[in-house]
Amino acid sequence: MTYFAKITAMAITATMIAGPALADDFKRIRKEADFRSLVVGKTISAGSGYLTLHADGRLTGAGSQGALIGNWKWSRKFFCRNLNIGGKNIGSDCQVVKMAKDGKSVMFIRQMGKGEAKTYDIE
């Protein structure tokens, strides 16, 4: 087995072991009322960016590429948003939302749970 193959096999094994443990730390939010009580009105942040989801459906914040402005709504167990970053429309997306069991972070998974996952701290 080549060095690259060994490293790849170790990385896959580590992911398989750590993945379920990380997934167990979060629980999916399925109801709008739960989403509103746990996330709406709070500032969520990741790195140098932050975002606030307002009760009236507005979305505001700032990131490394400029101001974040948009709208959001809850639709059939998904958080759906339309977002502009630094004046550029990046489009709409509906996402699965999961809350950490400790309530300190929230995970958004793009493309109705089939895309990239991003975790934010709740302030």
Task: Provide an overview of this structure.
This protein is α+β, with helices and mostly antiparallel strands. It has one domain (26-122). It has 3 helices and 9 strands. An 8-stranded antiparallel beta barrel has the order 2-3-4-5-6-7-8-9. Strand 4 (58-63) and strand 5 (66-75) form a beta hairpin. The longest helix is centred in the first third of the chain and has 22 residues, at 3-24. The chain is globular and about 35 Å long. Mean pLDDT is 86; it is low at 1-21.
The radius of gyration is 17 Å
Strand order of the largest sheet: 2-3-4-5-6-7-8-9
> How many beta-strand runs?
9
Number of domain units: 1
Shape field: globular
Biggest sheet architecture = 8 strands, antiparallel, barrel
Query: What is the average of the pLDDT values?
Result: 86
How many helices? The count is: 3
Helix percentage: 25-40%
Strand content: over 45%
Tell me the structural class.
alpha+beta
Instruction: Spell out the helices and strands N to C.
Output: HEHEEEEEEEHE
- The rounded distance between the terminal residues' Cα atoms is 48 Å
Name the poorly predicted regions: 1-21
Topology:
Layout: H1 3-24, E1 26-29, H2 32-38, E2 43-46, E3 49-53, E4 58-63, E5 66-75, E6 78-85, E7 88-100, E8 105-109, H3 110-113, E9 117-122
Antiparallel strand pairs: 1-7, 2-3, 2-9, 3-4, 4-5, 5-6, 6-7, 7-8, 8-9
The gist of it:
The protein has 123 residues and is of the alpha+beta class.
Comma- or semicolon-separated keywords:
disordered N terminus, single chain, 123 residues, globular, alpha+beta, eight-stranded antiparallel β-barrel, 3 helices
